[in-house]
């Protein structure tokens, strides 16, 4: 029996209140989410690999200024951009991740090169930049990453102890991470996550996104997951791996495991956010415990969903 292939994506979770966004802005978000889904799904439909599909989908989201990753990354306390990303495949549990890099147009692609061309999993800062140059990555100027909306966000809280999770006035508003998970025709799974971090972040803070097993995980025997939320809580809850563990050891279904982690375990430690996950049968779960999560999924059974709010 041929495996049902499918892909899911997210563009961040948080306080996304209906009516607060202009129809034009909402359409722009939905159109970009659909484009990322379509580009990833096209690879799966043409018998491509899950790892190629998730990388492609995340690249589309990184290239859009609407999302806090790649081009749309927020400003740090020093007025720079520090980006993180991770990618993992479920067949051999190979993974690559990068943290605290700047000037890299598509951090997810750098994470993949780390996975494929180095003996390491996670590279950070100057060493990661040297590795990128060694492998021919062209660096973009700061202008490429400058987004006026994000700059004004930073201006409001710079020189203070405050930090902010992407899109709104309160620090707990929208968690700007993008991600993708996929199951290909061969039942292979993959996950990718990318982020620009927190506005006004300081001291080289690293969230959950580039940490394997926390913000990103894939294992063909269980699931592939990509997370978005208040990173410190996801780190403490080892969230992505926790979903896999519940499937492996307690034999929960993908939906049961994902719901347990997001709606119970994470809430117990006051963590908020969500995740997307896929199992080796192509089933998708997209739970979140916030008002909304930019998300979408597409499957070979004809299902196509793009959503923002809880509806």
Automatic annotation (TrEMBL):
Active site per the UniProt annotation: 177 (nucleophile)
For this protein, the record's Pfam families field holds:
Asparaginase_2 (PF01112)
For this protein, the record's InterPro entries field holds: Ntn_hydrolases_N (IPR029055), Peptidase_T2 (IPR000246)
Note the superkingdom of the native organism. Bacteria
Name listed for the protein in its UniProt record: Isoaspartyl peptidase
Q: Where is this site: Cleavage?
A: 176-177
Residues involved in substrate binding? 205-208, 228-231
